[in-house]
Amino acid sequence: MPDVAQGLPGVGDIAAKLQSGIAGSDPTSLGTGSLLGNMSTTVIVVNLLAGLIGSAYFIYGKKQCNFKVLSWGVALCVVPYFIGNTLLLIVACIAMAAAPFVI
What we know:
This protein is an all-alpha fold. Helices cover 65% and strands 0% of the residues. It has helices spanning 11-20, 22-25, 41-64, 67-78, 86-102. Helix 4 runs antiparallel to helix 5. The chain is elongated and about 65 Å long. The chain starts with 10 loop residues before the first helix and ends with a helix.
C-alpha cells in the first residue's frame, strides 16, 4: 500500500504527531487554548446552578403563560456568560433568581 503522506509536504509531520499522540494530548500545544478559558470551579458551579434555575423558571413561565417569569428564566440562563467577576456573578444570579417574586 503506497504512503499518501510522501507526496504532500508537511503532511508527514502531522501524521507522525497524530500517530504518536502528541497533537491531541494537550489542547494548549495546538495553540487553541483551554476549552474553559480562565473559569474557576466556583464560576462553573454558579453558571450551572443559574442555568438550572433559569430553565425551571422558563418552563414554569411557558406552562403558566407568565411572560415575566419566562423572561427572567431566559435572562438567568444567558447573563452569567457575560459576567467575568465571580462575586458580581453570584450577586447578579441571586438578584435575578429573586426578581420574579419581588418585581
